[in-house]
Amino acid sequence: MIPVESIGEQINREAKLFFEEHKPPTDLIFDDGAEIESNRHRIAMNVLIRSVEQGLANRNDFFVCGNMFIYYSAKQIRNQDFRGPDFFAVLGVDSNPSRQGWVVWEENGRYPDVIVELLSPSTANQDTGKKKDIYEQVFRTPDYFVFDPFEPNSLQGWRLDATLRYQPLVPDERGWLWCETLGFWLGTWEGIVDRETATWVRFFDESGNLVLLPEEAVQQQAEAAQQQAEAAQQQAEQERQRASRLEARLRELGEDPNDLTLNPNHS
User: Stretch 2-7: mean pLDDT, rounded?
Assistant: First the structure.
């Protein structure tokens, strides 16, 4: 079986050569005025973006974004039937976040390595139909997932196989799907984010630990520091009580603790 990575490298080279031979348009539009479906969709998108940025913080060769136009056709001026993914990640690229959009011919023919679409009643058919076909047949994106923020059991995913066709990912016993490209699980998590309680789609590391948002990481560090401080305080109190008991025992024996030089091994 040919590894997906080798196929991806071949696709990138072919795309780069194609755009070098064709003169792409320059009058690109990066804002179509379309709004995100709901506040929950907005939060869900930001959760995916910020958690991956946190989870890959030790790297400087990746780009993640959402609701951003991806231009992929040299003949395309504006494709009103295609809108940027709700979340996408590209590895092994300049991590400069100042891009207005992802323009494939300006990125050495690179397409997204991972895409997540957040479903809604108005987009579900397109996300699992036309867009899925584009991501499979044009983008050759290795990992593609869909999830409806209002339907906790809606998570689905596909992985590109050696024949460049999407094969459904089989969830584990937790209902999670493995994202091989990122090395993370994608699953559901119930909790509060930005003051909204819901079932969110979240990334988890290989051991099943939640990939934290930056503010969650800060809170976790603060809680760990508080626990350490409480443990140190408890230990100090135990030592104080031990010293008090020792002093009382010495007085019972008729000794004045202030007049003694105690053996440090004495108990």
Answer: 57
